[in-house]
Amino acid sequence: MKNFPVFVFPVSLEFYLNARHTHKQLLTVYNPYDFSVNFKVLCTSPNKFTVLDPEGVIAPQSCIDIVVRYTQPSVSHCNTIEKFRITMYDKNTQQALGKRDIPTTLIEGEPMSINQESLGDSFHPLTSRPAPIRPTEEHSKVSCSHPSHQREQQPMNIVAVAVSICCIAALLLPTQPDPVVKSQLPEWLHIGSNLKLVFSFVLGLAGDLHHEELDKDILL
Predict the structure, then answer these.
(1) Which of 116, 136, 153, 180 is the most exposed place for a label (fewest CB within 10 A)?
(2) Reported pTM
(3) 41-62 pLDDT, tens digit each
(4) Among candidates 193, 208, 194, which has minimal Cα distance to 163?
């Protein structure tokens, strides 16, 4: 026998002695493979059960439902574990591919009834909690310091803009070791490439500083 997994749901069956609606249950056998398989259902106590269509074929990537009936429920059969064995075979060679055992139990009494309304009553809507309020003194302190903070930040923003304009103007000047390109500007306005690198670096710092100040203003 090969070791192909056999997929069956449910993995066990529970019949209740005093609940007749549980004496008939379904077993679903799945065939996830790309080829058809034959199946066969065996049982340890065939006199207690009736299985409709205990043999058949399952198409590729399909499933089939097997009806199982408990025909002789009695107190003497309670709490005795029986088993169904579902074996899958290759459709062409009839070689066994795999098997799965399903334990079965007859339980005395009835299944516990679950009241759906009571389950619904156990759910309650979630309430959103308000954000914690800071103390009054701290809140007034922050609100009073906010305008002065804006006045302090305003000159720094002006300085950052002025520095950025100067750096951009410097970068637009012609490069010093560039005799091929004729320029109407005096020679002392021709700056070196190293100096332009410095202006580029300062321009980047000024831009970052300006963005940081904007972020602080937004947060405040």
Answers:
(1) 180
(2) 0.51
(3) 999 999 999 998 999 999 999 9
(4) 208
Q: What tokens were used for 205?
A: 């710092």
CA distances to 9, 22, 46, 74, 85 from 13, rounded to whole Å, are 9, 10, 15, 16, 12
Calculate Rg over the CA atoms of the chain.
42
**107 DSSP β-pair partners:** 16
User: Among residues 41, 113, 45, 43, which one has the least CA distance to residue 73?
Assistant: 45
| Among 176, 171, 161, 163, residue whose Cα is nearest residue 200 | 171
Residue 154 main-chain phi, psi, to 5 deg: -65, -45
Query: Residue 79 region, left (φ>0) first, then alpha (ψ -120 to 50), else beta?
Result: left
pLDDT in tens, 27-36: 999 999 999 9
* Alpha-helix runs per DSSP H in the chain: 116-121, 136-172, 193-219
- In DSSP terms, 104 is beta-bridged to 13, 82
CA pseudo-torsion sign 10, 16, 17, 23: negative
